[in-house]
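Sample A.
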Amino acid sequence: MASLSCVSASLHRVTTPRDRRTGPRVNHGRGISAAPRGGAHTTEDGDASTSTTSDLVGAVASGSRDLTRSELDRLTSTLDLGSLCDAAASVRAAGPDPGIVTFSPKVFVPLTFACRDRCGYCTFAKDPDASDKIYMSVTQVIEVAERGRIAGATECLFTLGDRPEAKYPAAKQELSSMGFESTVDYLAHCAQAVLDKTGLLPHCNAGVLTRDELVKLRRVSASQGLMLESASDRLVDTADAAHHRCESKRPSARIRTLDLAGELRIPFTSGILVGIGETRGERLDALFAIRDVDRKHNGHIQEIIVQNFRAKDGTRMAAWPEPSLDELLWTTACARLIFGPVTHIQVPPNLTPEPDDSYPAGTSATADREGWRRLLRCGVSDWGGVSPGVTPDHVSPEAPWPHLSELARVTQEEGYALVPRLAAQARYVVQTRSTLISSDSSNSSDSSNSSNSSWTHETDGCQRWIDPNVAPHVRVLADSEGLSRASAWCPGREESAVDEAAEAAEAGKIGNKNKPWLALRSPRPVDIVGVDGAVFGGRVGVNPEPSGRVRAAIERLKRRGEGLLLEGKCSYEDVDFDVETQLDEAAVATLLRARGADFDAVCTAADTARREQCGDVVSYVVNRNINYTNVCTLSCAFCAFSKGPAAESLRGKPYLLAMDEILRRTAEAWARGATEVCMQGGIHPDFTGADYLEILKAAKAGAEVRLF
């Protein structure tokens, strides 16, 4: 045997990087009273009254403090729209993933169109027809979800009317006939079915909920959502206002739901509607109200949706003026300044208004693209759920989803990579580590769990955010950064032309009273699974144009490699690198966070270094693993190999190989051409150094060679 390598078991400690990427921003600087530069006076509410604009924006970008209402009012009164957007963009650039814009590949499941309220702008809510079912059946839900799974979706968005059983006796009767007391009970049942049969991650928008209802949905969903929409009671109490007589839209009731979601540590989506009759001040009131709840609970609001009103035929507000793009930009920039660099700011791309500077007739697509560009320049970091070719936007069926390749192109031209995410934003996924521990089932809040073990979360000091029932499904779909694996829709491919008018017409099939939820299309090839250079491609040899920071880091790496070659040294300690060739922490972070063209450039540089230093030969070793024992004093969270009193039921029984068996297996490996055996085992509680020497002697005897 030319070489025999005997490797003992090693213990790997899994740790979570301590940076802003790993979890929700904790505390966000609330209560921090550090004075701004220049000795500015700080008022009782924390307002730095003499701070410059750059001081205020810099403090928000650094995460050291939040803007007060008076500070934001001062910024909006002194800055023009362009400068306000620039300030928001600088805050967004300080976030944990400044090089990417995310979206969620989803299918839209309208579980029921019946609703106890009727808002002035809504075409989703419909009075039930006596001849039709009010709720989708479980079979129909799975049919839609499965179409999405095949196409590469990862999220199943459940949207439904608010408690239709409170208004329609037929709804209560239908629920009772299926064995459910409420719409929320049925929703939880359907969400569990989606998890079990498709693996898609449910996101539930179920309206105003109680604590018990939130808990019930938490067990079957990766995230939940409730738009605050407005903080103005005036819109509820005033005749013909947007929310008149819609008590479920009472701001206090909705804020209470947000508060309960924070107490329960649910990744939650909220936001506002722009242009439904509110003033700018009321709009800001709503954003600050959401932030107050978010900060109270250490960052459970994962994204803020800034959604512009769209006038729809057949509603009370059909003739109501729509907000301009400038108004949407102003609000979006304010949202970014209010929430800081970490919370995602989301704007639905299919609802983007045309720019205020008019475009010629027939150029709506061009206008959309210009609107996207301007939104990306004012702090937007997420496009929300997109479902091209599978399900329409049932809330706004007149507005088809954009083509992902076009959205990716515009996003990339603005300097970002378009990256698919999960229903729960990445920071809630990567900080969650689940461990199976022994517990008394009688103490479990889940009466359906009859096992003697239950899942608990260990999050390195952070609270748990994903329910144990959902966490395994999240891990299947998540990559190491908490984003979606390559199985999601991937933008950037060349797609065939699609008639947008036909797409809009098909979306309009939701008026079909028989099966409104089955307005489906066959998925276009562009939307099918895969990863290419527009996202995480790593296209080696395409000569990409990286950003300046990535280019500088690559040049340092190149100089380091050249130094090694010139000196003929391979030990880091032997090479006297000057400061210019050192990679500081910022440069390393820049390389690790590379996306799009930057990522391609890093891969190309790495391949060049490999070719120069190692040539084009790829080696391997003919190996056999010999697991001499699975008895181990440790119980690592990820391990199903080690056995001990608490793990005897997992994958086989404890064992300890005899020396004769080790000798036999080594001889067998040698006879079959192996040049290495890897001795791998648990940390046996009775082993001493002598035991390991005996194992090595047996291996050597089996190989029938001398090792020098």
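Sample B.
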Amino acid sequence: MTHNSSPIRRLLAALLGVVAMLAGSLALPARADDAKPANGKHYVIGTDTTYAPFEMRDPASGDMVGIDMDILRAIAADQGFTVDIKSLGFDAAVQALNARQVDGVMAGMSITPTCAQQYDFTAPYFNSGLQFTSAKGSAYTSLDSLKGKAVAVKTGTAGATYANSVKGKFGFTTTAYGQTADMVNAVAAGQAAAYIEDYPVVKYAIAQGANLQLVGDQIPGGSYGAAVIKGSNPEFLAAFDKGLKNLQDKGDYAKIVQKYLGGDATGMLTQPAKGKHYVIGTDTTFAPFEMRDPKTGDMVGIDMDLLRAIAKQQDFTVEIKSLGFDAAVQALGSKQVDAVMAGMSITDKRKQSYDFSDSYFTSGLQFASVDGSKVKGLDDLKGKVVAVKTGTAGADYAASVKDRYGFTTTAFGQTADMINDVKAGHAAAYVDDFPVVAYAVKQGGGVQTVGDKIIQEGKGDYGVAVLKGTHPEFVQAFNQGLKTLRADGQYDKITAQYLGSAAAGRPTFMKLVSDAMPALLRGLLQTIAVTAIALVIASFIGMLFGFFKVGHNRVLRWLATIYVAIFRGTPLLVQIFFFYFTVPQLTGLKLSAFSAGVLTLALNAGAYMTEIVRGGIQSVDPGQLEASRSLGLPYITSMRKVVLPQALKISTPAFINQFIITLKDTSLVAVIGLAELTYQTQQSIAVNLRSELWLAAAALYFIVITLLTWVSNVVDKKVNK
């Protein structure tokens, strides 16, 4: 930013600056490398008085607050020096610096070649920009719309310089004012169609309720830095730069900026996303935005194609984790993923926890029923049930109008589940995002729309979410890439690919199964692998803790008892969520879906196998143990060579049963995105919206379990013959 000043003040500042430069030329300039530590020192820092959100007074306490002030205090605390902040106004602060009445100035001061001749600057702490602004609701929404109109500018600022450089191109005139408030008043009074100011100042004003709107896009601008007289206080510069980096690394910098600018990360200093790798959580069954290609198994859809195109354009890489919406959000909270892109609506409530990218798609809501249904409008839903998806805008809207139209709601986790509930006759209709319903209709999914598309003002915008204060560089790169895709036409091509195609027709059941079979077989192999590894681990655990439960050591018996009680006394699904989502938050140890699935199944099955082993051992005649001990065999040897072989023969049927149960339990790990058979079936149904595929999945489960049972019985006969 370049603040305004009167001609007399500017002349005085220039004279003082010349004096300072002459004085500085008589001494050897100090280098930052040679600077003494700032730790323990005290600095007087001049600042502006009214330049929100960077410097302003807290009405309650009277203290100077804002982005600049909070950053300065945080750096001082980090580096061990103290500051005395002098609120002087920009011009007065610069004059005080030239007169050595303050040690430095931090007042949204732009780092320019001219200023750099007179002052030494810290590293940039904010990348500003310019923004044209008009009255809210006016027709002035682009620079082209300003033709023949007057634009207010602030004397001596970068905004004034820029406006004057482009006024010939866009056909507007400029009128100069002294303060931002004067420009705003000129626009409000109709004396000017728009004004130009630093972007964050405009955004803050809008966030505070100012009756303003943006005109065109942000114009990239300069960077802000703290200034000292050239050659003076190098230790302050070094400490400031070091402290700023520490704030960035800890995430405190982002928190300070977003305290005043909300979720808007524009202007925030970030490390470039180029070359970085991000893990992105997404939904599993939300066609046409995210779904799995049955042939390749890759995640495709509008969201996925946009993400990959932006990653390529911005030169970063992504790993996509297909988890389901709820699980993806939980994974973001536990920092197992860096961001979520899953048709996630940008809402005020969500902004409290997440930072969002710019909107990449504006949706609407649509009620739908089964093809041929008599339900044609919302009035037809009286006394009926409507299926909704948990945590969505559709669920919120249905809840808000259900009393008006006399229906009740039932919640599901996925779109496919809602559709299947309607097809099964449990619900009369469901509500989902309009493009999702449109895709189902086009794919011959056996559904029809109910009523008109529902447009909610200020709602229905999809964005990519990151945890508040994290990965601002990703958000910036995504936004920039999105603008590029829209400008070069790639965005339209991607959306048209999924929303502009005609219905493919309803395939036969055999064709449906044939197309889905490669994905189902991949899932089956994953199911077998998870089951095998989990059972090996569970068998070892069962043997060990089974011995503990029948042993003489009281501590080991209690340990085994507690272990069995925990894993038999809690649902397997809760255990899966605990190890995948909660453990990383408690320990920082991140588990893959495969590792979490295997670990949970092993520990759960191990608890039941512990009881199987205990029961088998206790079924052996105690005289067997007594006889072996009387012959001089140690306890462990007696158990291992005499009791255990007999116990295993007795327990074989129970072990076989547990093997089968564990194989079926693998279906539950689909909730964390492990691509086993159930998960792959869900993915295939999401693409074609045909629940008949569950018959194919059931058949595969039945075949594998039958084979496992046959092999187990053969082994049982040989062991117990």
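B remarks: The first helix runs from residue 7 to 25. The CA atoms of residues 331 and 337 lie 6 Å apart.
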